[in-house]
Design a protein that fits this description.
This protein has helices at 51-68, 88-105; strands spanning 3-8, 22-27, 31-37, 40-41, 44-45, 76-84, 114-117, 127-134. The chain is globular and about 45 Å long. The protein has a 4-stranded mixed β-sheet. By secondary structure, the chain is an alpha+beta fold. The chain has a single domain (3-134), classed as RutC-like (60s Ribosomal Protein L30, Chain: A). Strand 6, helix 2 and strand 7 form a beta-alpha-beta unit. This is RidA family protein. InterPro entries: RutC-like_sf, YjgF/YER057c/UK114.
Length: 135
């Protein structure tokens, strides 16, 4: 089955924050929806207090789930980000650069939304990502 994608990015600088306005995907294939992934191992938060390290760890776990399902980062068409309100400033100072570098290195260009939330499932979780992939 063939698939084509047209990226919608009308504003300069979108590529510098790992964000696209949208895209049009034409496919006869399948869609994968991944629920939120966090920086946890065995139900324990990893990299406590370090939002950049937690973000990369959560994205690495998302990558594992993608591969397990037979997808790659290049198949991701929507990536939603949840950032704990108490760490929003830190995320913009250091976390976003780490996320942008990870996504660029892994060939991911996806639309999505960054939501600032009061809390996540565990008090030490600072961020969470959910992905939709199409192939």
């Amino acid at each position: 089955m063939s698939s084509t994608r047209r990226v919608i990015a009308p504003w300069d600088g979108d590529d510098k924050i790992a964000y696209l306005q949208g895209g049009i995907e034409t496919t006869g294939g399948s869609t994968l929806w991944l629920s939120g992934t966090t920086a946890t191992r065995n139900r324990e938060a990893q990299h406590v207090g370090d939002i950049a390290a937690q973000a990369v760890f959560a994205l690495e776990k998302t990558g594992t789930a993608l591969r397990e399902a037979g997808y790659e980062w290049s198949h991701v068409v929507r990536l939603n980000w949840y950032i704990k309100a108490s760490h929003t400033d830190e995320f913009w100072r250091v976390g976003n650069d780490a996320v942008a570098a990870f996504l660029a290195e892994n060939g991911c260009k996806a639309a999505g939304v960054l939501l600032v939330v009061e809390g996540l499932a565990h008090p030490d979780m600072l961020c969470e990502f959910e992905a939709t992939a199409v192939k």
